[in-house]
Amino acid sequence: MDFHSLIYFKIRHELKKIVIQNLKRINPDKVLQKIEDISVDIITAGFDKEELFSGNIDAQKIKATAKEYGFSAKTKTDSSDLLTVKNNRNDLAHGIKSFAEVGKDKSADELIKIQKKVVKYLRQILENIQMYIDNQEYLDSTNTP
Predict the structure, then answer these.
(1) What is the average pLDDT score of the chain?
(2) What total of structural domains would you count in the chain?
(3) Tell me, what DSSP letter sits at residue 135?
(4) Which of residues 51, 68, 88 is at a domain's end?
């Protein structure tokens, strides 16, 4: 997908809001230097994919992001293990718990099952996002120029 070919008035209302909100954080001088075709350049300048997730992600954050952008967060796989992984990762990263403490209640087989479930869940979310892009669901279906 080439985002440079998008026209601002054709994208979904939710995405228009995100683009405008992101523009507030950017130095106006930087934006003015890049603007040629304002509708395309507003989208390009205002959409910062690096700002989407900070590294701490769970199903609640994914669902909130899905709602904000308009893609589906529905999956066949339960997402509860993602929160467990996130919380344990945070505890390890901040020195709150040791690897021995985090791993004492789970066997290697149980950890592998958790890993597979989390990967399966995230793969389904990525498939939803791919469908969103492929079907151009980011476009405003009510806007027919």
Answers:
(1) 82
(2) 2
(3) T
(4) 51
Specify the DSSP element, H or E, that contains 143. none
Residues 32 and 94 in one domain: no
Contact residues for 53 (Cβ-Cβ < 8 A; gap 6+): 61, 65
User: What pLDDT does residue 48 have?
Assistant: 67
- Model confidence band, residue 60 (pLDDT cutoffs 50, 70, 90): very high
Identify the CA nearest to 57 among candidates 76, 43, 73: 73
The whole domain housing 129 covers 55-136
How far is residue 35 from each of residues 5, 30, 51, 115, 137, measured CA to CA in Å? 14, 9, 21, 44, 25
Distance between CA 122 and CA 16 in Å, rounded?
26
- Helix, coil or strand: residue 24: coil
User: Are 16 and 75 contained in the same domain?
Assistant: no
Q: With left for phi above 0 and alpha for psi between -120 and 50, is residue 11 left, alpha or beta?
A: beta
pTM of the predicted structure, to 2 decimals? 0.67
